[in-house]
Design a protein that fits this description.
Elements: E1 4-15, E2 18-29, E3 33-37, H1 44-52, E4 59-64, E5 67-69, H2 74-79, E6 82-85, H3 97-101, H4 119-132, H5 150-163, E7 168-172, H6 180-195, E8 199-203, H7 207-213, E9 216-221, E10 224-230, H8 237-245
Parallel strand pairs: 3-8, 3-9, 6-7, 7-8
Antiparallel strand pairs: 1-2, 1-4, 4-5, 9-10
Helix pairs in contact: 5-6
Length: 250
C-alpha cells in the first residue's frame, strides 16, 4: 500500500475574523494524483498556498515522508521537493523556453566569479525535455514564451518541475482556458509524471477533467474536509457535485 508523501494535519488559517481553513487534514500518497475540489471560498487555494510556502498557517503540522517540516516560504517548499504550477504559469514571457526552465537555478560555466550562464547546456536540456513531455512540434529552446500557446506554456512549467525532480507537483487550474487538444496534453503530462514516480495535486473547477486523470478526490467545503477518499471509478460526477454543494442526494 502506498505511503504518504505529504501529510498536513489540523491545518487552520484565519484572516482576522474570517476562518479560511478549520482543522484540515490532507494527504498525498506516493505516485498518486489527488483531485482537490470545492466551490469558490472552500479553502483550496489557501491550503495550497500553505503547502507551497506563500502563506503561513495559523496552526497545524506538515509532514514530508514522515518527517515534520517547516514551510515558511517558497524556497522551503522547493527544497522539500514541492513545486507549484499556478494558473498563470509564473513564466517570464520575454525570456526563452530554456531560460524559463532554469529561472533562478541557472547552471554556470567557467569561473564562478564571472557568473556566466551555460546557455548551450540549457538549450540542449530544454530541447530534450520538451520532446520527453510530449511536445511534438519542433520548437527551438530559444523560442520566447510569448510565442507559445497556453498548453505549450503549461508544458514548460511542468517540464521545469520534472527536471528539478520535484516529488510533488501542484497544478492550480492547469486546464483553464485551454482548448481540447491542449487540455488532453496537460492530462497526458500528469499521467506521465505519476508513472515516472511523481505525485500530483490537481485543482480544477472542471470536474470532468478531474475524473479523467485523478486516483482520488478530496473535497473541501467552507474550510473543512467533507470527503477525502472518493474513488472516481466508484462514483459519479453528479454525486461529487452534491458533496461540493452540500445538497442532499436523490
Amino acid at each position: 500500500m502506498a505511503t504518504d508523501l505529504v501529510r498536513m494535519e489540523g491545518i487552520a488559517k484565519s484572516y482576522g475574523p474570517v476562518t479560511a481553513l478549520d482543522g484540515v487534514d490532507f494527504s498525498v500518497r506516493e505516485n498518486e494524483i489527488v483531485g482537490l475540489l470545492g466551490d469558490n471560498g472552500a479553502g483550496k487555494s489557501t491550503l495550497i498556498k500553505i503547502l507551497s510556502g506563500t502563506v503561513t498557517a495559523t496552526r497545524g503540522t506538515i509532514y514530508v515522508r514522515g518527517q515534520q517540516v517547516q514551510i515558511r516560504n517558497t524556497t522551503d517548499a522547493i527544497r522539500l521537493g514541492i513545486e507549484t504550477i499556478h494558473q498563470d504559469s509564473a513564466l517570464v514571457t520575454q525570456l526563452s523556453i530554456a531560460r524559463n526552465l532554469f529561472l533562478g537555478r541557472e547552471p554556470l560555466v567557467g569561473p564562478a566569479i564571472l557568473n556566466r550562464m551555460d546557455k548551450r547546456m540549457m538549450n540542449e536540456v530544454a530541447g530534450k525535455l520538451l520532446k520527453e513531455i510530449g511536445i511534438t512540434k519542433d520548437i527551438p529552446a530559444t523560442t520566447p514564451i510569448s510565442s507559445l500557446s497556453g498548453g505549450e506554456r503549461q508544458a514548460v512549467s511542468i517540464a521545469r518541475a520534472l527536471h528539478f525532480d520535484s516529488d510533488l507537483i501542484v497544478l492550480d487550474e492547469p486546464t483553464n482556458n485551454l482548448g481540447v487538444e491542449e487540455t488532453q496534453g496537460v492530462m497526458r503530462f500528469m499521467r506521465n509524471a505519476r508513472d515516472s514516480g511523481h505525485s500530483l495535486i490537481f485543482i480544477a473547477h472542471n470536474i470532468h477533467h478531474v475524473f479523467q486523470v485523478v486516483d482520488r478526490i478530496v473535497v473541501l467545503r467552507r474550510g473543512k474536509v467533507v470527503a477525502e477518499d472518493v474513488d472516481p471509478k466508484q462514483t459519479t460526477i453528479e454525486a461529487v457535485e452534491r458533496i461540493i454543494t452540500g445538497l442532499p442526494g436523490d
